[in-house]
Design a protein that fits this description.
499 residues; 55% helix; globular; alpha+beta; six-stranded mixed sheet; 22 helices; four-stranded antiparallel sheet
Length: 499
C-alpha cells in the first residue's frame, strides 16, 4: 500500500485530451470476455481493450467472485455523440451508461468527453459484474461506490494499481455539502435518469469515499458492510440494519473517520504483487455496413418500437428473403424485424422459412438460432421455435437465453423434467436472471411443486428493484400459501420481446 499526491496523479488518470478524427472509422475487438465496437481511432480502441484486460485481472485478484467465467459477454460501444445520443443516453451530462438485459449487456461510452474512456468503461463494467454476481438488489451506495473504486484501475510502470484517486469524486467532496452518512446508506438511485444534481453528486462521492476507505485503508470495515447488506436482504430496514451493525456510538465514529479521511491530501492505493499476461488484442476493421449491423442487432434485441424503428433505419432497404450467402445472424435479424414490424419492413413468412433451414446447418450459430426461434414463437409457431432452441442448446449448452425461450414453448403443466434441470443449472450460474426465476416458479407451481415454486419466487423478490414488480411477486407468494402441495397453481407466461 502506498500514498500518492492527488494533484498530479489524477490529472494523469482522468483528463486525457480528446482529439476526434475528421473521418469516422469502425473497429471491433472480439475477446473471450468482452467485445468493443468503436468509431474511435485504432490506437484509442486498442488502449481501451488493454486497459479493460488489466482491470479484469485486478478485479479477479481482489474480487474473484465477480469475474469468474461470466455467462454473459458484455459489448462496449465507444461512440461519437451523433451515435451515442441516438442509442438511448439519458442525459448529455452522462459520460457513459450500461444497459443490462436478462441475457446481454451493452455499455455505451461518449468519446467526446474529456474524461478517460477507460475510466468510464471500467465504471460501467463494474456495475455489470456486480449485478451479474448478485441474486439480490444492490443498495445505491454499494453499487456506485464500488464502480467508482475500481474505475481508475490501471497499469503504470509495469505495476497494476487499484484504488487510485478519483478526481471527479474528490472535487465533489470539496464542493458539495457533506450529507449525513445515514442519508447515504438510505439513498436510492434516481428514478429519472436525467436528474443529476448536487445532492446526487454528493451521495456518489461519499459512496466512493466509503468503499475506498473500507477496501484500501480499513479492510476490517468490509466485514461490517457485508453484514449490513445481508441484514437488508433479510428484510430489515436500513435504519434497523445500521443499528445492529454499528451499535451505540460506533456509527458516529465511522462518520468522523470518513470526514477525516476525505480531508487527507493523499490517498492510499493497492499495488498488486503480480501482473496479467499480455493481452492478445486484435483489431478488426468494420465496414460502415458491418458497423450498422452491429448497432441494429443491439437495438433489435432491446425491444421497444423506437429501438426497432431505429434498427430498421440503420439497415436501410430490406433485403429480399432469397438473398444468397447471408450470415446466419443477418437472416435472424431480418426475420425478427419482419415479425416485430408486422411485415411493414418485409414479408415475414419467407424469412421464417429461411430461419428453419438454419437448424440444419452443420456449423450452426446459437445466437442466430435463438433469434430465429423468437421470431417463430411470436408468430405462434411454438414447435418450430422449440426445434431452433434445442438446436441452439446443442451448439452451446450455456446459452441461457435459449433455455428461457425453450421453456416458453411448453404448457406449464407439461414441461419435461429435463427442462427443469436445465433451468436449475442455468440459475446456479446466472442467479440474477428474473426470467429464468419466472420460468422455474411458474412451471413448478403448475406441476404442484409449491415448495420449489415458493423458493424461486422468494429469490425473485430479493432481486426485484421495481416496487410494482415486487408487489406482484408478493401476491404470488400469498396465492401459493393458500394452495395445497401437489395441487397446480396457475402463473401466466410472457412471450419474448427482446433481451
Amino acid at each position: 500500500m502506498q500514498d500518492v499526491p492527488l494533484r498530479w496523479l489524477t490529472l494523469l488518470l482522468l483528463f486525457v485530451p480528446s482529439l476526434l478524427p475528421a473521418a469516422e472509422s469502425w473497429y471491433l475487438v472480439d475477446l473471450d470476455d468482452f467485445r468493443i465496437v468503436s468509431n474511435g481511432t485504432s490506437d484509442e480502441t486498442r488502449k481501451i481493450a488493454e486497459s479493460i484486460h488489466v482491470y479484469r485481472y485486478a478485479l479477479g485478484q481482489t474480487q474473484p467472485t465477480l469475474v469468474k467465467p461470466a455467462p454473459i459477454r458484455p459489448t462496449i460501444f465507444v461512440l461519437t455523440p451523433n451515435y451515442f445520443d441516438r442509442f438511448g443516453t439519458r442525459s448529455r451530462t452522462f459520460m457513459g451508461f450500461v444497459r443490462r438485459g436478462e441475457f446481454s449487456a451493452d455499455a455505451f461510452i461518449d468519446r467526446s468527453k474529456s474524461v478517460s474512456r477507460q475510466f468510464v468503461a471500467q465504471h460501467e463494467l463494474t456495475h455489470f459484474y456486480l449485478h451479474l454476481a448478485s441474486d439480490s438488489a444492490l443498495p445505491y451506495w454499494y453499487d456506485e461506490g464500488t464502480a467508482e473504486l475500481f474505475a481508475t484501475t490501471q497499469m503504470l510502470n509495469g505495476k497494476v494499481l487499484v484504488g487510485l484517486p478519483n478526481r471527479l469524486r474528490w472535487e465533489s467532496l470539496q464542493i458539495q455539502v457533506w450529507r449525513p452518512m445515514r442519508e447515504v446508506f438510505a439513498a436510492v438511485r434516481p428514478s429519472n435518469g436525467d436528474v443529476w444534481d448536487g445532492y446526487s453528486d454528493a451521495i456518489v462521492a461519499q459512496s466512493w469515499l466509503l468503499m475506498h476507505y473500507a477496501t484500501i485503508a480499513q479492510p476490517e470495515l468490509l466485514g461490517r458492510l457485508s453484514h449490513l447488506l445481508a441484514l437488508e436482504d433479510a428484510g430489515l430496514s436500513v435504519g434497523e440494519a445500521l443499528e445492529q451493525v454499528f451499535p451505540g456510538s460506533t456509527f458516529d465514529q465511522l462518520e468522523r473517520n470518513l470526514k477525516s479521511y476525505s480531508d487527507r491530501r493523499s490517498k492510499p492505493y493497492l499495488t498488486l504483487k503480480s501482473r496479467p499476461p499480455e493481452a492478445a488484442v486484435e483489431l478488426q476493421t468494420l465496414s460502415d455496413e458491418q458497423a450498422k449491423y452491429e448497432l441494429a442487432l443491439m437495438l433489435a434485441r432491446r425491444g421497444g418500437q423506437e429501438s426497432l424503428e431505429t434498427a430498421a433505419a440503420l439497415l436501410g432497404k430490406p433485403l429480399p428473403a432469397d438473398s444468397p450467402e447471408l450470415p446466419p445472424r443477418r437472416v435472424a435479424l431480418e426475420a425478427w424485424l419482419a415479425v416485430k414490424t408486422d411485415g411493414s419492413r418485409s414479408p415475414a413468412v419467407p424469412w421464417l422459412a429461411r430461419c428453419v433451414t438454419l437448424a440444419e446447418q452443420s456449423a450452426a450459430d446459437d445466437k442466430a438460432l435463438v433469434l430465429c426461434g423468437d421470431a417463430q414463437l411470436v408468430s405462434d409457431h411454438p414447435l418450430e421455435a422449440r426445434r431452433l432452441y434445442e438446436r441452439a442448446l446443442a451448439v452451446n449448452s450455456a446459452n441461457f437465453e435459449a433455455v428461457h425461450s425453450l421453456a416458453l414453448t411448453y404448457p406449464n403443466d407439461s414441461a419435461p423434467a429435463g427442462l427443469l434441470a436445465q433451468l436449475e443449472d442455468a440459475l446456479a450460474i446466472l442467479p440474477s436472471s428474473m426470467l429464468l426465476r419466472e420460468d422455474a416458479y411458474r412451471i413448478y407451481a403448475a406441476q404442484g411443486n409449491l415448495g420449489k415454486a415458493r423458493f424461486h419466487i422468494e429469490k425473485a423478490v430479493l432481486k426485484s428493484r421495481d416496487s410494482e414488480q415486487r408487489q406482484s411477486l408478493l401476491r404470488l407468494l400469498r396465492q401459493l400459501e393458500s394452495a395445497s402441495e401437489g395441487q397446480p397453481a396457475a402463473i401466466t407466461t410472457q412471450r419474448p420481446s427482446g433481451s
